[in-house]
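stage 2 :: seqdesign
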């Protein structure tokens, strides 16, 4: 490993020079943008990709985009799931264009509301819905509802989880103890008072927490997708379902990323029924939109909680949530874009990619593995898929990761930053997969022989 890190350090230095030479326009735009944007970017984390300057995009369509310097990229990041059904899917673009002449937002539902609700219900197999603008907000609102209907304060999450910038989930585990995530800015509350994190795939730890009967909700993804990828052990999510029922804790499944599994998400494909499900990012084809679903029974409990509260702000909802434009985009995404045929294509190609990447890993005799959840793959620097976040973290190596990302980017292939995720969309072609595999093979060759 030490030798590989040394070689990756050299590769990274060479690739940073190559990037700067290849991207004079991005370099110039970075200078200009720095005059008016913090860190020179519209959101500060856009500066954390590991490139010398941010890569500025000129246009994006389907599974690829062109940067400001006119270079074409095969996109396997796809906006970290936001563009999971391809950039500017034609049906969504048409729906947005049509709605654009009929109003964007009015604080009232458009005539499309019943159809959008029916589409959500059919797609995810959940009866009742509310909209939000981001998955972060949807998670935050669901936690509020959960606390309101159960009259309990605490929330259980998993070590290594990420549900957007929801403070209730921002815990780290250090020497077996939960603490506020140290990187949080401006957080003055002790989050451990009302939140607890336990290891993923550990039903005994979950039961130990839940049996205190203090937990309103258990919030999790079906797999941890933000600390590398940690897949659920057989029966783990079903076990969570049973424990939540036993201890009257609401089970929230955040399917924002695991919608990669199949049409309808992981829970529908695996016949698990959460109390709440949360979905964001790709649900409106990449336009900001999110939704949370629940049963009619839970809807009655939510209405009772709202009706029993004094009139005024509920702390749930934002002005633009559920706007007219969003309804049009959600409807077009669910009914015309994220079709069974689209998923069949995505899953088959992702399977081919998994197979070819595994072949490369064994050819180069690297102790690495590929984990896959439907259309989503993760390369991890450990022999076996990790079973919890601690194992996933132990396998991470920033230098090797950055070297691989930049080598690929400099040859027209984009992976998701901050880990090694690859997504396949309905317009990804075999040729795109071949390019990724060919360049990755060259990269490993260079890394091993540098
Ligand atoms: C599982 C999961 N849920 C929620 C979110 C939050 O999404 P957003 O940043 O769009 O609010 C993320 C973001 O990466 C996520 O990974």
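stage 2 :: out
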């Amino acid at each position: 490993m030490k030798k590989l890190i040394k070689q990756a350090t050299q590769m990274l230095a060479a690739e940073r020079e190559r990037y700067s030479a290849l991207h004079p326009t991005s370099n110039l735009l970075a200078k200009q943008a720095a005059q008016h944007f913090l860190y020179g970017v519209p959101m500060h984390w856009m500066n954390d990709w590991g490139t010398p300057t941010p890569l500025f995009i000129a246009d994006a369509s389907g599974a690829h985009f062109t940067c400001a310097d006119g270079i074409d990229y095969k996109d396997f990041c796809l906006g970290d799931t936001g563009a999971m059904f391809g950039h500017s899917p034609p049906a969504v673009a048409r729906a947005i264009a049509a709605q654009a002449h009929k109003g964007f937002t009015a604080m009232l539902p458009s005539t499309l509301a019943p159809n959008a609700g029916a589409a959500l219900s059919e797609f995810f197999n959940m009866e009742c819905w509310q909209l939000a603008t981001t998955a972060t907000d949807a998670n935050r609102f669901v936690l509020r509802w959960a606390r309101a209907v159960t009259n309990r304060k605490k929330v259980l999450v998993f070590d290594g989880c990420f549900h957007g910038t929801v403070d209730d989930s921002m815990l780290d585990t250090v020497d077996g103890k939960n603490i506020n995530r140290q990187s949080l800015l401006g957080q003055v509350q002790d989050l451990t008072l009302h939140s607890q994190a336990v290891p993923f795939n550990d039903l005994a730890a979950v039961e130990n927490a839940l049996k205190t009967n203090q937990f309103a909700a258990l919030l999790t993804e079906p797999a941890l997708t933000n600390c590398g990828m940690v897949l659920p052990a057989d029966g783990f999510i079903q076990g969570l379902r049973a424990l939540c029922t036993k201890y009257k804790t609401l089970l929230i499944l955040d399917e924002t990323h695991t919608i990669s599994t199949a049409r309808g998400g992981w829970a529908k494909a695996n016949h698990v029924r959460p109390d709440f499900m949360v979905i964001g990012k790709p649900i409106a084809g990449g336009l900001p939109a999110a939704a949370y679903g629940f049963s009619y029974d839970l809807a009655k409990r939510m209405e009772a909680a709202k009706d029993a509260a004094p009139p005024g702000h509920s702390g749930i909802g934002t002005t633009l949530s559920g706007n007219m434009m969003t309804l049009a985009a959600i409807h077009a995404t669910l009914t015309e874009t994220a079709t069974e045929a689209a998923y069949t294509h995505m899953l088959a190609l992702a399977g081919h990619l998994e197979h070819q990447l595994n072949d490369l890993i064994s050819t180069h005799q690297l102790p690495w593995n590929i984990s896959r959840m439907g259309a989503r793959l993760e390369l991890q620097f450990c022999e076996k898929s990790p079973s919890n976040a601690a194992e996933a973290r132990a396998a991470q190596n920033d230098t090797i990761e950055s070297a691989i990302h930049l080598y690929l980017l400099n040859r027209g292939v984009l992976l998701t930053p901050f880990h090694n995720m690859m997504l396949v969309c309905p317009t990804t072609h075999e040729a795109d997969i071949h390019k990724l595999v060919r360049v990755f093979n060259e990269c490993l060759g260079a890394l091993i022989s540098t």
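stage 3 :: structure notes
- The first helix runs from residue 2 to 22.
- The chain has a mean pLDDT of 97.
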